[in-house]
Amino acid sequence: MTAVSADTSVLKALKKIRTPQKQRNREFWLLLFALLISGASLTLVQLGALDRIDPMILVFGGGLAVLVFALHVVLRVVASDADPFVLPIATVLSGLGIAMIYRIDIAKNFTGWDSFANKQLAWTAISLAGAIAIVIALRNYRVLYRFTYISGLAGIVLLILPFIPGLRARGVNADVWVSIGGIFSFQPGELAKICLAIFFAGYLVRTRESLSSVGKRFLGITWPRMRELGPVLVVWLISLLIIVTQRDLGTGVLIFGMFIAMLYVATGKTSWVLIGLVGVATGAFLATRILAYVQRRFTNWLDAFNPEIISRDGGSYQLVEGIFGLAHGGLIGTGWGQGRPQITPLAHSDYIIPSLGEELGIVGLFAILCLYMVFVSRGLRIGMAGQDDFGKLLATGLSFTIALQVFIMVGGVTRVIPLTGLTTPFLAAGGSSLVANWLIVALLLRISDAVRRQPRVVIG
Question: What is the Cα–Cα distance from 423 to 120, expressed in whole angstroms?
């Protein structure tokens, strides 16, 4: 009986793969196009930097193709109605990131495990394995609603992990890294933002009635009552604690911004957005007056080209080099392998946007930002199309997190806002961020599949 049951399951799975699937077929062709762009980028990097084609292109290009098509096949079997654009966009961004990191490795003669591109491909494999596990195991994303407070506790625990004796990584400026045995290091805050997004979504579903209750109307806006300000103040204080204790300005702003965005979606009240902006401005003012490292970041931002600030320790040298790299690229860029992005410190991670801007130009950089815009818009569309409040808030919160992270990072390296310690999603080298971003992709795919499968109410 067991063998017959197993054979039947296999036949059902094969039948499901053969069944015409409009969304997955569209995703298949978009994935081929995304991999074509990634492969062309790697080829141009080698031609521009090495003047030849190296077999290493098969490792990077072929490895990425195998990984994403494995997730594509899984989606055909267990989530055939998932959004067809999310995975291809994440794939092309990851491919461009690997190509740029590989280009910097060539310039610095990094090979083997010293190569950041090899590490990035390995982390991509881990990330996609995690995404596949989420897609397979999380058949109904609504089960996460039951773990609202457990997710909140997990998020807090992840944030305080760097303070546990023996876990904190040495030789880093911010207390955000955890080291296990001195071999494996990661940023628990990257996973904490997903846990907190689940917590915020579940919490706001439970309390939206009280948070959206009628208050006093002033200047054409209905303001909440004082007793409803408690949750905002708590999250605001947690964000300030992250900035003060972990010296991590980016994560603090990211978590508070995510909560305010989800609060606005839950209540529909503009007053919450204005209160959030006042909270950010107040926190920034206090931080610049109390914390030396935040004050230094603002000084680097406001007076970046001052020779004294450029040359001092922790000054604006990195920021200025990134801006000069963008200027060198101009409108259409120097071309893959023809620029000098390696001059900028951390060109493969924190400053990968100026690196791409130098070799692809403003046109190429704008195309990358458009990809992010489409990715976020698909995530918001997934949320707004849902009929349950939890899925709507979770998809919106996760999508806004990506959008805010891109704005903070791109704004920082282009001197629109002060620089923070965040990484650019999918592009920058780094395992923790990459894993978290691909888990967000998996959650969005799961939510979109459930949204498309849910019965529609027809009126008339």
Answer: 14
* CB-CB contact of 362 with 329 (8 Å): yes
pLDDT bucket at 227, cuts 50 / 70 / 90: low
| Angle (CA) 445 450 453, round 5° | 125
Helix (H, G, I), strand (E, B) or coil at 184: strand
CA distances from 396 to 208, 211, 453 (A): 16, 18, 19
Take residue 216 and report the two structure tokens written for it: 């006093």
Q: What is the DSSP string of 360-418?
A: HHHHHHHHHHHHHHHHHHHHHHHHHH-SSHHHHHHHHHHHHHHHHHHHHHHHHHTTSS-
Element (H, E) at 157: helix 148-160
Element (H, E) at 22: helix 22-50
Q: Computed from CA positions of residues 20, 22, 24, 30, in that sequence, does the dihedral angle turn out positive or negative?
A: positive
Measured N-to-C along each axis, helices 249-267 and 230-245 cross at an angle, to the nearest 10 degrees, of 170
Among 273, 278, 275, 263, smallest CA distance to 226 is for 275
The H or E element that residue 178 is part of is: strand 178-180
Percent of the chain predicted with pLDDT > 70: 85
Q: Which of 138, 146, 191 is nearest to 398 (CA)?
A: 191
From the number of C-beta atoms within 10 Å of its C-beta (0-12, 13-18, 19+), residue 258 rates as buried
Task: List pLDDT tens digits, range 77-106.
Answer: 998 899 999 999 999 999 999 999 999 999
| Dist. CA 234–CA 417, nearest whole Å | 25
What value, to the nearest 5°, has the Cα angle with vertex 403 and ends 400 and 409? 135
Q: What's the whole-number average pLDDT of the chain?
A: 84
Confidence category of residue 194, pLDDT binned at 50, 70, 90: very high
Residue 76 CB neighbours (<10 A): 21
Tokens, residue 85: 């654009």
Residues 119-144 as b or e (16 or more Cβ within 10 Å = b): bbbebbeebbebbbebbeebeebeeb
Stated pTM of the model: 0.88
Quote the DSSP letter at residue 247. -
d(C-alpha 433, C-alpha 123), whole Å: 10
DSSP states of 67-105: HHHHHHHHHHHH-TTS-SSHHHHHHHHHHHHHHHHHHHH
Q: What pLDDT is stored for residue 238 in this prediction? A: 79
